[in-house]
Amino acid sequence: MLMTSIPAFIGSGGELPDCTDDGPRVQAASDSAAADIPSEYLELYRKYGEEVGVQWTILAAVGKRETDHGRSTLPGVKSGTNYAGAAGPMQFLISTWGGKARVPMSSDFNGYASDGDGDGIGDVYNPADAILGAAKMLRRNGAPENVRRALFVYNRAWWYVDQVEEIARKYAESGVVEVPPEADDACDEPLVEAAPSAVVAKILDYALDQRGKPYLWGGTGPDAFDCSGIVYAAYRHAGLSIPRTTFGQWPFGEKIQQGSEQPGDLVFFDSGPGTAPDRPGHVGLVVSKGKMVEARCRLCGPIKVTSYEGRDKIVGFTRPLRNPTVLEQLAKLGDAAV
């Protein structure tokens, strides 16, 4: 039997929590932070934390744990490398930085070398460059949502992760490491419970469970996904077969007018290489009115719930569950479609 209405999106407490990524929250610095962090470093931590989208307190705590904000006199901080091959105030491995300590930003390189001071060189010993590079690395590996995983990638020891988090809490006036609301598990259950059918619940449950995993072009899981890959995998989890790529998914579903979209529908954008208004290159999975799960890009952070309201270049919405092939699959599964 087809369900034609959507139940109200409410959880056990009444209203659905705000699970949308509205950008980084800038925490106030504690007296301890102001006393311990050199003013020029504090400015850089705050600037690049906000610019890249990671907690500046975590960024500063890494700087403290690694080199006491560049004040350490140990080998590798001001020049050369330490016993492990790390260099600079944020202690990057030279290979991770870009293959050498000073990397021309106009050159081809593979690493986190960054130009924070605008001189055209990514200098691992330059605080502005190193702090910007560290912010990008933390963002790439899970922050601001999954801080512990991002820190573990930075230095693969859980005792290190614990120490950095403890320092970060001392640097925050609130005494906590704040994470965006979409990192809260409470954002999952109400959405799934409010799904208009059992099959949509399965799709949402899978997609939301991937939150925090990294973007990977061509990825279909289980460790990483691209935008169409997570949609493809979520439908496959529900026993349904749809096209793998965005270009294939766009003509596949029944077109839906904006405003009438439901959970399980897809929202498409004109973005990415080779795309156009009639050939969208990015897709998100609608989880509630105005919100979607998306794997956006390699440097955009991990998979998360974001808002599509106000986003430009929306091409349109589709409902794959109305495709005749999918309806046949649903009939065999005995599931109700939306």
**End-to-end separation:** 9 Å
**Rg for CA atoms:** 22 Å
Q: Which spans of ≥5 residues are poorly predicted at pLDDT below 50?
A: 1-17
Q: Strand portion, in percent?
A: 5-15%
Strand order of the largest sheet: 5-10-6-7-8-9
Q: Mean of the pLDDT scores?
A: 88
Main sheet record: 6 strands, antiparallel
Instruction: Give the helix/strand class.
Output: alpha+beta
- Percentage of residues in helical conformation: 25-40%
| SSE order, one letter for each helix or strand | HHHEEHEEHHHHHHHEEEEEEH
What's the overall geometry?
elongated
Question: How many helix segments?
Answer: 12
Detailed description of the structure:
With 338 residues, the protein is α+β, with helices and mostly antiparallel strands. It has helices at 31-36, 39-52, 56-67, 94-97, 127-140, 147-154, 158-171, 189-193, 198-209, 227-237, 246-252, 324-333; strands at residues 86-87, 92-93, 102-104, 121-123, 254-256, 266-269, 282-288, 291-294, 304-307, 314-319. Residues 1-17 have low confidence and may be disordered. The strands form three sheets. It has a six-stranded antiparallel beta sheet, covered by helices on one side. Strands 1-2 form a two-stranded antiparallel sheet. Strands 3-4 form a two-stranded antiparallel ribbon. It has twelve helices and ten strands. The longest helix has 14 residues, at 39-52. The termini are close together. A hairpin with a 4-residue loop joins β1 and β2 (92-93).
In short:
This protein has helices spanning 31-36, 39-52, 56-67, 94-97, 127-140, 147-154, 158-171, 189-193, 198-209, 227-237, 246-252, 324-333, and strands spanning 86-87, 92-93, 102-104, 121-123, 254-256, 266-269, 282-288, 291-294, 304-307, 314-319. The chain contains twelve helices and ten strands.
